[in-house]
Inverse folding.
């Protein structure tokens, strides 16, 4: 069996008295798309923050290609895990191109001296970074002028720019936190196609999303997170058919979902 | 065609009257320039530029503020009838110019002449120049609003290279002359009883013209042009700066002032890296300049120096810069743990520690309140920098060599700033300023980057401090107090955060204005403070904002009329 590209083993996260994550395990095989769904407050974003080093898990560990990830977002990105944010977090007063160039930061060799004196090496590196960044803008479908400030982009383009910026770090794994939030059906469809194309370039993807249809149409495997625990994991067909998920997502009022979770806990115990 | 170009949607009720208002305003401004302004000779001597009734002896010898008014009047008429973009902005700016010039001269004459008798029909004589000018200004401003404040014009015209060079050359030469005029109008220091009025009036005129040029889109076009021909522009600009000693400002007094401005401008650019690029508020920055100055002073061979060794200036300057840089890194290290307001307090404390330590002569390095006097002037080929310089028949004022050295220093710090800003590390700093967590998620080692910002900023300050020590011959802790840090920070914010010309302009304003406002004696600092408040109210993004910041803070209505508000500020402050 090959080593999974990203593996979270038994990750727990405790904030004071609040157990946000309780022993979550997730495996991402190379070239796959894994979906992470669950009601609000289930701990999806907390889990992402553990994967990217923003939080250090209280227990458990995160492995990238079999190596433990360091507990620092900058080093995690350097190692090959890139992410986008649930609330878009571009650098609003930088241009579109500059945003992507910031993503290139970890892959550029330019040291302080080259930055200071702008020698031939600086110009080569800068040119290569710009070319790569423009390619990525083209790839995600941003064809407008790249000297526009990112704050002025329409909402959907800002989401795409955030993906381009994350891809600029040449990641092995891309973590997308609600990439289609607030999008219309056409934009959602385009995002789905984009994620497929990202997978084709050899990047494995983890997606958090509330849009169940989108997730089931996209992912090779889906994990359902409820109240900090992994409820179900499996192929979209399996998850779709699972009665607990159906209940959680297709019409039962929240109180009854809670009851079901209690029941599920009972079963596991 | 007067109202056709009103694209802002809501039409002003003044729209139908815009053209007649502008025409009347322009003509009235010209008339005002030719009317007498004072009915009798004031106690402090003639109001300058033939403003009394004696003016009728020689009506064609128009100079000074009357010449400015005449020019503004002609420009208003041109703007009203020539086909130009964003006419409203242009006319409004010119109107402000007329109003400010008239108001300042009129108010001054009234105040100094002991009441309205100076300008009205007492004694059977009339001198309604200022009143006519003020009315002309107000009418023209109204005409500007009548035309509608449309967005600043954008010029697509791309001239061939030789023409572009010529335009740049002429424009920068104009800047040089304007700077020289701004320094010298009203005379040196307090030699002229009306110096303050003459200077403020000139600012009103310059502001009106600049506002009009900016409104019509010329300034934006010029900046695009200079960016395209960056190398040429830099060379011409440096040459212009080096030519200042050959203008009217080429005397010892202004060479000294300009050299001091240069030292603070270089320091402000260093601070701009920390505050403007990396977004780290530093309230104790002048301490690094102090450290540089102390190191250079102690290695200078002065009798009061505390090290027995005398090092040549370049070596001492490098050591000063390195030591300051090390302290910068030390002070920067808490930035790993504290952010925002808390960081400001840490740096404030560091600045205070430095001042108190220097005051108490800690380590026997600073001589405490005795300072380190008698630092020898720099010399090159046996030529001392504080002496006059004569090359062949050309005689240059004392201090010109310091001025040249400091121009080179400012140019070097500008180059450092510009190169860093457009590099991997510069983008990292800006990203940290914008969103630190997102920057970390992009793989930026934010801790290292922030310490590097402090280190480089402090190094530049240390270098400027080394020149400061020799230039002023004395290094005392009193030159590096909290107020100096705040003034530097104000220079950065006033000029526009993250912008190079902004830092230079900010430093110039903060050090020239107090000199020029000496005329107001005890009200000097009050007016100065009010001017700063008003600039920040109307230009929160700074006078020459960085492109990024401009977008962030620009208020659409105020954005296009840049400099005249400043003068409105001085005007209101005076009232």
């Amino acid at each position: 069996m090959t080593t999974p590209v990203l593996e979270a083993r038994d990750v727990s996260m405790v904030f004071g008295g609040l157990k946000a994550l309780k022993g979550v395990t997730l495996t991402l095989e190379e070239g796959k798309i894994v979906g992470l769904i669950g009601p609000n407050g289930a701990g999806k974003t907390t889990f992402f923050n553990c994967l990217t080093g923003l939080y250090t898990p209280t227990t458990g560990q995160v492995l990238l290609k079999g190596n433990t990830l360091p507990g620092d977002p900058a080093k995690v990105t350097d190692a090959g895990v890139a992410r986008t944010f649930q609330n878009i977090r571009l650098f609003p007063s930088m241009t579109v191109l500059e945003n992507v160039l910031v993503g290139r930061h970890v892959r550029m060799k330019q040291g302080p001296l080259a930055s200071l004196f702008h020698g031939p090496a600086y110009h080569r590196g800068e040119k290569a970074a710009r070319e790569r960044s423009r390619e990525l803008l083209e790839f995600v479908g941003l064809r407008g002028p790249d000297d526009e400030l990112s704050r002025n982009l329409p909402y959907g383009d800002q989401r795409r720019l955030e993906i381009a910026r994350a891809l600029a770090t040449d990641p092995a794994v891309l973590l997308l936190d609600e990439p289609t939030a607030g999008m219309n059906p056409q934009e959602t469809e385009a995002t789905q196609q984009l994620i497929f194309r990202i997978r084709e370039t050899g990047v494995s993807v983890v997606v958090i999303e509330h849009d169940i249809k989108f997730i089931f149409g996209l992912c090779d495997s889906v994990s359902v997170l409820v109240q900090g625990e992994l409820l179900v994991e499996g192929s979209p067909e399996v998850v779709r058919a699972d009665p607990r998920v159906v209940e959680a997502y297709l019409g039962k009022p929240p109180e009854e979902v809670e009851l079901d979770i209690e029941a599920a806990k009972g079963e596991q115990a | 065609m007067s109202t056709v170009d009103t694209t802002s949607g809501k039409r002003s009720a003044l729209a139908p009257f815009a053209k007649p208002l502008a025409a009347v305003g322009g003509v009235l401004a010209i008339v005002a320039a030719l009317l007498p302004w004072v009915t009798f000779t004031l106690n402090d001597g003639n109001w300058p530029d033939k403003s009394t009734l004696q003016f009728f002896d020689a009506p064609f010898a128009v100079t000074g503020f009357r010449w400015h008014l005449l020019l503004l009047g002609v420009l208003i008429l041109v703007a009203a009838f020539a086909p130009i973009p964003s006419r409203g902005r242009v006319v409004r700016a010119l109107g402000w110019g007329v109003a400010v010039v008239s108001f300042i001269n009129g108010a001054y004459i009234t105040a100094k002449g002991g009441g309205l008798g100076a300008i009205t029909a007492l004694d059977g004589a009339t001198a309604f120049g200022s009143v006519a000018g003020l009315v002309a200004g107000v009418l023209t401003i109204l005409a500007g609003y009548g035309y509608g404040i449309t967005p600043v014009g954008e010029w697509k015209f791309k001239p061939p290279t030789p023409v572009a060079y010529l335009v740049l050359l002429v424009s920068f030469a104009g800047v040089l002359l304007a700077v020289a005029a701004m320094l010298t109008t009203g005379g040196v220091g307090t030699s002229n009883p009306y110096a303050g009025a003459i200077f403020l009036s000139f600012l009103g005129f310059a502001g009106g013209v600049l506002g009009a040029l900016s409104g019509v889109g010329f300034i934006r076009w010029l900046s695009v042009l200079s960016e395209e021909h960056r190398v040429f522009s830099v060379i011409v600009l440096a040459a212009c700066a080096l030519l200042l000693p050959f203008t009217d400002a080429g005397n010892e007094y202004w060479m000294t002032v300009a050299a001091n401005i240069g030292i603070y401008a270089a320091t402000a650019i260093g601070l701009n890296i920390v505050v403007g690029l990396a977004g780290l508020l530093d309230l104790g920055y002048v301490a690094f300049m102090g450290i540089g100055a102390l190191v250079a002073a102690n290695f200078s061979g002065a009798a009061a120096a505390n090290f027995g060794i005398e090092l040549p200036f370049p070596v001492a300057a490098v050591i000063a810069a390195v030591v300051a840089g090390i302290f910068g890194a030390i002070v920067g290290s808490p930035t790993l743990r504290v952010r925002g307001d808390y960081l400001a307090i840490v740096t404030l404390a560091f600045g205070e520690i430095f001042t108190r330590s220097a005051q108490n002569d800690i380590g026997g390095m600073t001589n405490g309140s005795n300072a380190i006097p008698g630092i020898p002037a720099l010399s090159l080929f046996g030529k001392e920098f504080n002496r006059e310089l004569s090359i062949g028949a050309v005689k240059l004022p004392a201090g010109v060599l310091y001025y040249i050295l400091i121009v080179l220093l400012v140019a070097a710090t500008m180059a450092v700033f510009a190169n860093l800003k457009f590099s991997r590390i510069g983008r990292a700093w800006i990203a940290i300023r914008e969103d630190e967590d997102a920057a970390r998620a992009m793989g930026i080692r934010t801790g290292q980057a922030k310490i590097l910002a402090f280190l480089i900023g402090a190094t530049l300050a240390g270098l400027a401090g080394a020149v400061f020590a020799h230039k002023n011959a004395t290094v005392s802790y009193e030159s590096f107090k909290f107020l100096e840090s705040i003034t530097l920070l104000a220079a950065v914010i006033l000029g526009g955060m993250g912008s190079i010309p902004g830092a230079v302009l900010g430093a110039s304003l903060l050090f020239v204005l107090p000199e020029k406002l000496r005329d107001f004696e005890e009200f000097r600092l009050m007016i100065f403070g009010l001017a700063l408040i008003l600039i920040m109210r109307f230009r929160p993004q700074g006078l020459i904002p960085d492109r990024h910041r401009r977008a962030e803070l620009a208020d659409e209505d105020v954005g296009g009329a840049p400099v005249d508000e400043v003068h409105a500020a001085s005007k209101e402050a005076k009232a």
